[in-house]
Design goal:
- The chain has 13 helices and 15 strands.
- The chain is α/β, with parallel strands linked by helices.
- It folds into 3 domains: about 60 residues; about 90 residues, Beta-Lactamase, CATH 3.30.450.370; about 230 residues, 3-Layer(aba) Sandwich (Rossmann fold).
C-alpha cells in the first residue's frame, strides 16, 4: 500500500509542481514539494517522503531517471543510445548502466525537456541541440530523422571542484617526476597548450594547474561552455552565447578574447581552442600576456602543429603566420593520453621551427614541430627527450626542484 501511495503521490505531485511552474511559481525546493504532498493529503514516512522529493526534483530540474547516474562519484559522461541502452564513463571506459527509460517516446520526451531546460529548441524542425543544463552539465541531443534509431543523448558532467595536483599524482594521471615540472610551468608564467583526444582529462588537469596560480593574480577564463572550475579566489569567467532563434545576440569566442584583454588579466585562459579565436589568443600571448593556457584537441603531441595550422586557417592566417605567432607564444605542450580507460600525462614538448619540411616530426607543413622534452611510459617512468634542454632554457627550469 505504501508503494502504491508513494507512486500515486509522485505522479500527482509532479503534475502539480509542473503546473505551478507554468503559472510562474517555479519553486522546486524540498519545502515546496512537501507542501504539495500535504495539500494532496498523502501520508508518507520520512524515507518515502525524502525519496519522493528526490524523484520530483530530478524530474523537474534534473535529468530524471538519469540524475542518479550523473551524481555517481567519478562519472564524467552518461550516454543514451535507446530506452534500455544507457552507458556511463567513470574513468575506466564505458560501462553499461542498469537503467530502463521506458520506450522511445519517453527518451524523446526526456531529450526535449532537457534541451528546453538549457534554453534550446529540440523538435522535428531543429533535431539537434547543444546546451548547458542549469547545474552546468553539458547536453548534446539528437532526434530522428538525424538519428534513425531514436533520440540520442550525451551528457558531460561538470565537476565544480578542482582536484589538487597531488591527487592527480596519487591516481597516476601525473607521474611523480613530472609534477615539479608542471608546477614550474605555472610559477614561471610559461604559455602552455594542453593537448589530447576527447576525454583524456585536459580540462581536469588545467583546472588543477590553474589552482596553483598565485592568489593575487587575476585569471580570466574564456570558454564556449563553462567547465573549468579552478580552486582560485580571483577567476573571471566569460562564456560564449549562441544566437537566438532569430539569429541575433551571438557572442563568440573571438569577441570574448578581445574583451578579456581589456579586463586587466594577469593570465588569459582559453578553455578550448577550436576556431578563429586561436588568432586572438596567439596575438595576446605575443604581446606581453604571460602565463596563458589553452587546451587543444590532438591525437598526439606531434600533431599539434597541424591543428594549429587548421585552426589558424579558420581565422584567415597563412601557415607562415601561424608558425611565426606560435613560436613566440607557446613555450610548452603538455599532452595527455588515455590507456585502458586511464588518463595520464604522456609527454611534455616544446615548439620549434622545422627547417626541413620532410622532418618526421613535422605534420601539416606548418613549419613547426613539437620536440619531446619529457616522455612518460604507461608505468610512470620518465625519460628526457631532445627538447628538454630547450624547455629548461625557455621556461627557466634549470635547477628547478619543485
Amino acid at each position: 500500500m505504501a508503494e502504491r501511495a508513494r507512486g500515486v503521490a509522485a505522479a500527482d505531485v509532479l503534475d502539480e509542481v509542473r503546473r505551478r511552474a507554468a503559472e510562474g511559481d517555479g519553486r522546486t525546493g524540498a519545502e515546496a514539494i512537501v507542501a504539495v504532498v500535504r495539500e494532496h493529503g498523502a501520508v508518507l514516512g520520512r524515507e518515502d517522503l525524502a525519496s519522493l522529493v528526490r524523484t520530483v526534483r530530478a524530474e523537474v530540474e534534473g535529468a530524471g531517471p538519469l540524475q542518479p547516474l550523473l551524481e555517481l562519484p567519478g562519472v564524467t559522461d552518461v550516454l543514451v543510445n535507446g530506452p534500455d541502452a544507457v552507458w556511463v564513463d567513470r574513468g575506466r571506459g564505458l560501462e553499461r548502466a542498469d537503467v530502463d527509460l521506458g520506450d522511445a517516446a519517453a527518451v524523446r520526451a526526456l531529450a526535449v525537456r532537457l534541451a528546453a531546460a538549457g534554453g534550446q529548441r529540440l523538435d522535428d524542425a531543429a533535431p539537434v541541440a547543444d546546451a548547458r543544463l542549469p547545474d552546468g552539465t553539458r547536453l548534446h541531443a539528437v532526434l530522428p530523422p538525424v538519428s534513425p534509431g531514436g533520440a540520442l543523448l550525451s551528457l558531460r558532467v561538470l565537476r565544480r571542484t578542482a582536484f589538487p595536483l597531488a591527487d592527480l599524482v596519487a591516481d597516476g594521471t601525473v607521474a611523480t617526476a613530472v609534477e615539479p615540472v608542471l608546477r614550474a610551468l605555472v610559477a614561471r608564467r610559461a604559455n602552455v597548450l594542453v593537448s589530447g583526444a576527447t576525454g583524456t582529462g585536459k580540462t581536469t588537469l588545467l583546472a588543477s594547474l590553474l589552482s596553483l596560480v598565485p592568489h593575487d593574480e587575476r585569471v580570466v577564463v574564456i570558454e564556449e561552455v563553462g567547465e573549468l572550475a579552478p580552486d582560485h579566489p580571483h577567476v573571471v569567467r566569460l562564456t560564449a552565447r549562441r544566437a537566438n532563434v532569430e539569429g541575433a545576440g551571438e557572442v563568440d569566442l573571438v569577441a570574448l578574447v578581445r574583451h578579456a584583454l581589456r579586463m586587466r588579466p594577469d593570465r588569459i585562459v582559453l578553455g578550448e581552442a577550436r576556431g578563429a579565436e586561436l588568432r586572438e589568443v596567439l596575438t595576446a600571448l605575443n604581446t606581453g600576456h604571460e602565463g596563458g593556457w589553452a587546451t587543444l584537441h590532438a591525437n598526439a603531441a606531434r600533431e599539434v602543429p597541424a591543428r594549429l595550422e587548421a585552426l589558424g586557417a579558420l581565422a584567415g592566417m597563412a601557415p607562415e603566420a601561424v608558425a611565426a605567432q606560435a613560436l613566440g607564444a607557446v613555450h610548452a605542450v603538455v599532452h595527455l593520453r588515455r590507456d585502458d580507460g586511464r588518463r595520464r600525462v604522456a609527454e611534455l614538448g616544446v615548439v620549434e621551427r622545422a627547417h626541413d619540411q620532410r622532418h618526421p616530426g613535422t605534420v601539416g607543413g606548418v613549419g613547426l614541430r613539437v620536440v619531446p622534452a619529457l616522455l612518460v611510459s604507461a608505468d610512470g617512468g620518465v625519460t628526457t627527450g631532445p627538447g628538454w634542454a630547450l624547455l629548461e632554457e625557455r621556461c627557466g627550469l634549470r635547477g628547478w626542484a619543485g
